[in-house]
What does this fold into?
Amino acid sequence: IFNDVPPSRRRNLAAVRAKDTQPELVVRRLLHGAGYRYQLHRQDLPGRPDIVFPRQKVVVEVRGCFWHRHSDPGCKNAVLPRARAEWWAAKLAKNVARDVRNEAALGEAGWRTIVVWECEVRADAITVAARISSIVGPPSGLKMGSPETPGVLRDS
It folds into this structure.
C-alpha cells in the first residue's frame, strides 16, 4: 500500500516518538527544576498520559500539533499534507477521537487533564509550566511565596 512512499519520508516517520518528545522533555525539565515530582506514562490510566501528578489527580498531555490536529488557526504545525490527504485526514481524525475518549475516561475516573500543545511549548515554555503549576498547586512540602521555595514558577 505504501510502495510509492520515498525511503527518506519513511525514515522521517519512523523517527517520530510516542513519548519523550522534545516538547515533553522541556516541560518535564521545567517542572522538575521547580521542585515538582511526578510519574511518567502510567499504563493504568487511559492513554498513558505523559506527566501524572497522582496526589492532585492531574495529568498533563503534551501533544504534537500535527499528530493531534491542533485546532488553533494560528498554529502552523497542524497543516494537513497534500500527498495522500484523504489517508492522513482519516488517520489523524482517529488520533483526535482517541484523545477525546481518553480525556472522557480520565474525567469519569476523577482526573483533570491539562493539554499542552507543541507550539505553546516552543513559543513560551515558562508560561506553560506556570499554567500547570497554577493548576497543580505548589510542589509537595513547599508553600508558595516562601523564601525557601526554590524555582517555583510564577508569571512575571
The beta strands are 39-40, 51-53, 58-63, 112-117.
